[in-house]
Structure formats: C-alpha cells, structure tokens
Amino acid sequence: MTRPIVYDATHLVSLGEAANAAGIGRLDLAFARHFAAHPRLACGAHYGFRGPHVLAPARLARILADVAPAAPDDSAEWTRLRDWLLGTAPADCAPTPTRPRKASSESLWRTPLRLANDAPRALPHSSLYLNIAQHACEFPALFRWLARRPDMRAVFFVHDLLPLDRPEFFRPGYGPLFRRRIDTILRHADALLTTSHAVAERLEREIAARGAARVPIHVEPPPSTLADTSETRDDALARRDYFVFVSTLEPRKNHLTLLNVWRALAADARRAPKLVLVGGRGWENEQIVDMVNRCEAIRPFVRRTNGISAPHLRRLIANANALLMPSFAEGYGLPVVEALSLGTPAIVSDIPVFREAARERAEFLSPIDGLGWKRAVLDFTEADSPRRRAAIRAAQTFEAPNWKDYFERIEAFLASL
Predict the structure, then answer these.
(1) From the CB of residue 100, how many other CB atoms can be counted at a distance below 10 Å?
(2) Where are the beta strands (DSSP E) in 291-398?
(3) Which long-range CB contacts under 8 A does 119-126 form with residues at least 24 apart?
(4) I want to staple 319 with a disulfide (CB 3.0 to 4.6 A). Which of 73, 120, 237, 299 is the partner?
(5) CB contact at 8 A, 339 and 167
(6) Residue 348 · residue 264 · CB < 8 Å
(7) What is the pLDDT of residues 316-372, one digit of tens each?
(8) Cβ within 8 Å of residue 185, ≥6 positions away
(9) CA-wise closest residue to 66 among 113, 132, 129
(10) Cβ(190)–Cβ(417) under 8 Å?
C-alpha cells in the first residue's frame, strides 16, 4: 500500500468509553487499533463543517487508549453469574444492575482537545480516507469536502442495509435517516467494504436502483473479537446445562421467541436448562424486559447481564451447550463466529447471512418455529443426543477467520485502489 492512510476517528471521539460496544463499535475498534499502528498512517480525521479536523497519529493513539481502556473489573458480576449457573446462588437472586459508565473528569477535559487540529492542517495529497463506523453520515454537509479532493480515495464500510429493508425493526424515523446515510456514502465512496456476500449483493441492487456509478465492493468476514489466549475451560460450568444469547435487546433479535420457549420448558423444572442473555438495551424492548423481570415462570432459568468482560464472555460461551441466535434479520452475526471459533455449537435462524457466516457449521431453524427451537434446546440438553454430538463435531471443524489474514486481504484491496 503506497497511499497515506487517513482514519476517520469521529466515532471514537464521540465515545465516552467503549466498554461492551456492540458489533459495529467492536469492528471500528479493531480497525482503529490496526491502522493506528500502521506505518502508512498519516493522520486521523474528525468531521468539521469547514472540513475535517486533522489528528496526528500520536493523538489518534491517545484517543484510542482513552476510549478503550483495559477491561473493567467485572469479577463481582462474573462471580454472581457463575454461581447462578452452578446453582450455588439463590434461584431468584436478581442480577447486578448494569449502570452506564461515567466519563472521568480527566476524560471530560480531554474531549475538547480531541478536536484540536494537529500539523499539518490539511489531509495529505493522494491519501486514502477510511470510514468504518458511518458516524454522522446522515449529515451530507460534513462530507462535501470529499468532492473537493479528487486526489483522495474514500472507502466506507457498509455493515448492512436492514433499516431500508426492515424498517419495522428500527426506531421510528430511523429509516429516512439511514437512507440519507447511504446517500452520502454512495455519493462519495470510491470503494466499499462489507462483511458478507449477502450484503454485497444487496448493495449492488441498491446501487443499480439508484443509477449510481458502480464501485468495487470487497467482502471480508470479520474474525471473532473474542480471540485471545485466555483460558476458557471451566469443568464446573461445562457440567451444567445452559445456553447463551449475545445480542442487544431489540425486536429484530427475536428474544420473545426464546423467552416463550423457556416459559414452556419451565413447566418441567427438572429438565429446564438455563439461559443467559448478554447485551445492553436497544429500543422498543419493553416486552422483552418485562418478561425477563416479571414472568415468575422463567425467573429461575433466565438471567440478563451486560457487565462481563471479553475474557469472561469467552469462558461463558466456550462452556455453554450452545449459542442461540433466532434473529429475524442480520448483516453478519459476529456472535455466531465467536461461538464457532471456540468450538461451541450454534443454533441460529435459517437466513442467508448466517449460513454464510457459519459456513454451514451451525444448526438452522426458522425464526418463527417456536416448537422447533424448543425441540432443539431439549436435544442439546441431552449429553448423548446424536444431534448435539453432530453439532459439536461441526463446530470443531469450523475454519475460523483470523485477524492477520483479515487485514492482509483488506490492505491488498485498499492497495489496488
């Protein structure tokens, strides 16, 4: 790669801290960490109405360290969760409330300094502008500077187009906002990155429908963001029957199907496994939260947390009977890759993007087949179940993508522009 790299850090600057970031946030952090240490990094950039603010590489590194500090001490929540799974904590023990992390006073006074221009004050000639998080792309005025820089190449990451196709699963008014975001991206992009061929094909249709100029689209499935060397084996947990669902609480993820499955399973308390819901609250999730908090039938068997660090999440998933993902629609499905990379079976919705991400190594069910999900959970609760053994073998043959190869292929594509 010969072009200088300009990494758009606006999303990072906007964060107080990135603890428990969701999928797009975690991918932005992975890209930022990689390119902040890249020898071709010229600078970071932050949106400004007259043009982008220029952030020196050292400032970008400090911002990254500021928003993504070392993992917080989650030992208390992890101990409570593990004790609950092992049955050594009361069945009706309420989970530790997850409170928003407050920005430190040091972080607050640093924020204005994040926006100060560093020398040189203009982005380098013939550089490559890289935007991963799509932050504020709904404001086209912030990107008009790209039209004045034909020497540059702009590359945007498009994670999915679900708000256009399934607006009922998003906040009211989000569809038009997202359309403006895509308008901005397609107006200025010289190339696009995405996670799956399913999304790339949808992007091609969108570009054709608009009569816009075609641009190169590079598909690269992201690896697990939980990949590290921390110990995952926990014999006590592995002897317990429990399942994990990693997802923000929102209608698109289809929590209610699983919660109703657990309500049915709770009728036979001797056979009912436990379910851990890992994720923060999204939008229009009142029914989900009410059922978790107020349904007495499932209270002994379902617990929600959003306060455990990556090493403990690895350990939780690695020893589970299976990861469950009954989503109605997804752009990729990072938790599926994370589970299969750990050798944990995954039972997921039968949607094209999951078949692609899982490389056909998961169990696939219709997201509206409640009885099918119930049968699968019961089968995966039986240690000698042929279905469960086959799923374990399939997970163990999953060829997990890795970050080294991932960024080598990303960089090869960027070098071709």
Answers:
(1) 9
(2) 302-305, 322-325, 346-349, 363-365
(3) 119/54, 119/56, 120/54, 121/54, 122/54, 123/6, 123/42, 123/43, 123/45, 123/52, 123/54, 123/149, 123/152, 124/4, 124/6, 124/42, 124/43, 125/151, 126/3, 126/4, 126/151, 126/152
(4) 237
(5) no
(6) no
(7) 999 999 999 999 999 998 999 999 999 999 999 999 999 999 999 999 999 999 999
(8) 134, 137, 156, 158, 192
(9) 113
(10) yes
- As a whole number of angstroms, the distance between CA 381 and CA 271 comes to 8
Q: Which two tokens stand for residue 195?
A: 């996670």
What is the Cα–Cα distance from 38 to 230, expressed in whole angstroms?
Answer: 26
Specify the DSSP class assigned to residue 100: P
On the CB side of 373, CA atoms within 13 Å amount to 28
- Looking at the DSSP bridge assignments, the partners of residue 44 are 7, 55
- Identify the residue whose tokens are 């008014």: 173
Structure tokens, 126: 């013939």
As a whole number of angstroms, the distance between CA 67 and CA 15 comes to 6
Averaged over 213-227, what is the pLDDT? 91
For the entire predicted model, the pTM comes to 0.89
The CA distance from 362 to 256, in Å, is 21
In angstroms, the CA 220 to CA 197 distance is 9
Provide the strand spans (E) within 234-386.
242-246, 274-278, 302-305, 322-325, 346-349, 363-365
Q: Which two tokens stand for residue 88?
A: 């050594």
The contacts of residue 292 (CB under 8 Å, 6+ apart) are: 259, 277, 298, 302, 304
pLDDT score of 27: 86
For residue 96, give the DSSP letter: P
d(CA 53, CA 116): 7
User: At 293, which helix (H) or strand (E)?
Assistant: helix 286-294
> Does pLDDT of 94 surpass 90?
no
Q: In this predicted model, what pLDDT tens digit does every residue of 40-51 receive, in sequence order?
A: 999 988 888 778
Please state, rounded to an integer, the average pLDDT across all residues of the chain: 87
